[in-house]
Amino acid sequence: MRIAVIVFPGSNCDRDCLHIFNSVLGVQAVGVWHRETSLEGFDGVVIPGGFSYGDYLRCGAMAKLSPIMDEVRRLASTGRAVVGICNGFQILLESGLLPGAMLHNRSLKFVCKRVDVRVETSRSSATRGLPRGTILNLPIAHAEGNYTVGEDELKSLEDNDQIVMRYSSSIGEVGDAFNPNGSLGNIAAISNRSGNVVGMMPHPERASELILGGEDGRAIFESFVGWGSGGVR
Amino acid sequence: MMEELAKEHGLSADEYQRILDELGREPSLCELGVLSVMWSEHCSYKSSRVHLKKLPTTGPQVVQGPGENAGAVDIGGGLAAIFKMESHNHPSFIEPYQGAATGVGGILRDVFTMGARPIGNLNSLRFGNINHPKTKHLFHGVVGGIAGYGNCVGVPTVGGEVYFDDCYNGNILVNVFTVGVAKIDRIFKGSATGPGNPVFYVGAGTGRDGIHGATMASEQFDEGSEDKRPTVQVGDPFREKLLIEACLELMETGAIIGIQDMGAAGLTSSSVEMADRGGTGLRLVIEDVPMREEGMNAYEVLLSESQERMLVVIAQGREEEVGRVFSKWELEWAKIGEVTDTGRFEVVHHGKVECDLPVSVLTSSAPVYDRPQSEPARIREAQPAKVEPTADLFGDLVQLLGAPNICSRRVIYEQFDHMVGLGTVLGPGSADAAVLRIPGTNRAIAAAVDVNSRFVYLNPYEGTKLAVAEVTRNVACTGAKPLGTTDCLNFGDPTNPEIMWEFAEAIRGMAEACLALDAPIVGGNVSLYNASAGKDIFPTPTLGCVGAFESESFITCGSRVRTVDDLVALVGV
Amino acid sequence: MPRARVLIHNRKGVFDPAGKVVEGGLERLGHQVKSVKVGKVIDLHFESGTSEEILAQVEKMCRELLVNPVIEDYVVEIEE
Amino acid sequence: MPRARVLIHNRKGVFDPAGKVVEGGLERLGHQVKSVKVGKVIDLHFESGTSEEILAQVEKMCRELLVNPVIEDYVVEIEE
Ligand SMILES: Nc1ncnc2c1ncn2[C@@H]1O[C@H](COP(=O)(O)OP(=O)(O)O)[C@@H](O)[C@H]1O
Fold this sequence. Notes:
heterotetramer, A: alpha/beta, Rossmann fold, 9-stranded mixed sheet, 11 strands, C: alpha+beta, Mth169, Chain: A, 3-stranded antiparallel sheet, 3 strands, binds adenosine-5'-diphosphate, phosphoribosylformylglycinamidine synthase activity (chain A), purine biosynthesis (chain A), Phosphoribosylformylglycinamidine synthase subunit PurQ (chain A), Class_I_gatase-like (chain A)
């Protein structure tokens, strides 16, 4: 098992993700510079959070031009797990690997805090071991996490079980009061049709060690690792 | 005519005469610009130097005291915590977002210059009355700027303090603090040694922004100051992030002899300071400096305060490593000169010598003033305020808890990414100091910034002692042992003897308290002329303290009530 | 020197939080305004090229990078 | 319905980091462009008013809220 953590100019959660894989989970992960052109030998890809290219123009817009993205696309098409966290989610949207787009948070402010999310499906590479309805307490940290998508696509996301997490209360009520950014349908994470490509706004790497106040994020990494090299299920 | 120009550059008649005596000739315009920034309060500490000497700066735990870009203390395990605090008051008043943002950028560079990866930012903010018409705009701008910059570079903002008071209506304070961690035997200094070694410029291109910012920071605000606008710079945190990674990567190669960020007074002060520390000279070629505007002259290039730039002295023969690393990180770089043994700061532009001054004239010959002091009348006249208890104590409590200076700071710190880096064990809102573990080790540090300027106003000596006590106590409460402090001394107009008295008294108190608490001062910053329309701010000597834990397991639970039946104890006098 | 200007706005029906905030701010200052939209303007300068060439090139840039069609609409203006 | 458009750019000499990044991106896509500037556009719609009235009002809005004169320059365009 070997994981690639893609490093763009301006990524800033790459080292954090590497720490969780290598030092907490004992799974080999290496940083891969965005100009690389091969992901040969990797079984999964994490696109970490941060501010790739300073988030200038639009979050994730510049990163989609990087050479490595062709390889990410190729790996995704073979069914390997590809997870984009925060800015990584934005990059997956801009690259067309996931449908929809991000708008500014409705508060127009950056927001960094812990929130609760409800797992909506266990058929994604990020939530495989997690029963539907599981509540996870995870940090968010973003200025543009206000997910939006056309009506038809939203319906198709719902019909195909592609909504992975929604913002919720600590007992799993979903509603506007628990939505930190105004995202459509309180969506916090989605996947592609086959479930292997996932984009999520919360930062599971920030909640994978007790000393940092919680371990709920670990389940996501464990699911990701467990998706393995087996490809499409 | 030169004399008139000298005045416009903020040099007094005496100071100009001193320049003529030292040089034995008139300076060129370019030299005058260089002299004026190097002799400005900001770079020369001319009014504060005699007092700062009195501070305790040594101890077995001190790895680097004042004099370098930042101070360093030994936190065990072969690691040093490197930290510094700096003010960006005047730029933030003129343009709150960019002023605060570039303040964060500057303090980060001071810390990673020394080889440390920054792991935490804190800040200490002072605004005018919350109902003053300007306060809202300034507050949102400053908080937004700190967030915008810190979040993007990926250094968590883990703590700070905010107060509102009328005395800051026309002169807010934005003090920013960064702490980083490096291996003790891998600390880099801002020193240019080895004549013949090439000098490299790395980072963003030079533009015309911020020319004369350093002099501006030392001038009092007056009615027209809101028009002095082009002196404000725009920060690019994205480029700063690349600069951090590139510099840390280049440091690994062993090719670096000395490295220094270009802060206030940009290329001038960074090269002069490096030559001064190295006991050498420096020769720069202006046309080789990466520029982002056309037709810039030597004066402009030397005094520009464009952000996100560094000066690096490289060991001869290792030049191509700079190109390899900086090109990878998509940053501009160029060789712009070399170290000499002449002891002079020489600048040529297209073959013409624009500046040729002895480094010592720019540094050690800069004027030092022991300005007159006098105790303000208010000190003896002050009477204790009488507060009558009311019948509704509960109501009073609720009102107090909602007061602008006491209420929750959540709206502020939720805008800051305080978790990136996976170090934040106790972040904002959870303890009296921020606690950061150092991933990959079992070590952790605590950091806090504090001062109650009202106390300092009422009694500068006792008030500053209290500030030192508070900041070290806040660190100690988390279970860490305080190791060292840094200061950011925000005072009014030093030519006013009462302000100078406040300053001297504050230093006296700080020295005594730091000595008693074994928390030596390892770095600091002085910001004078904090006044508007002739009214000075409260003397505000902000203190920052860093302490260390022997092990992560000594971290206390923070300041929260945990469970029913927990014991509550009052400790102290 | 030819110049192109790309004006980018959120598509009709897509929430424009910045516009809402500016609207509120202007109202608080006592200004009467029916609605506000905040967008981006990108000015591109070229060494040379005819209007047609530049228009074609800028349209391509918009598709490839400058505009996200999921949420944004744009207009290109060419100046010579 | 009268409309005003405010175009806001960083002042000459003030760094435009976004423009620089977009420039790099376009180059990577193989486009030849001399320089890029990224700014804001604010479209204001009004119920009524003559061009002169609206221009005066929008100028006031720019001074009071929309533009930060320390770093930004602006142009107002009125359409009827
Ligand atoms: N400007 C700021 N930036 C980040 N955190 C802040 C800031 N101001 C206050 N905080 C955080 O908010 C919490 C409460 O602050 P404060 O009211 O000053 O607390 P106390 O008086 O208990 O020290 C602290 O954890 C502090 O670090």
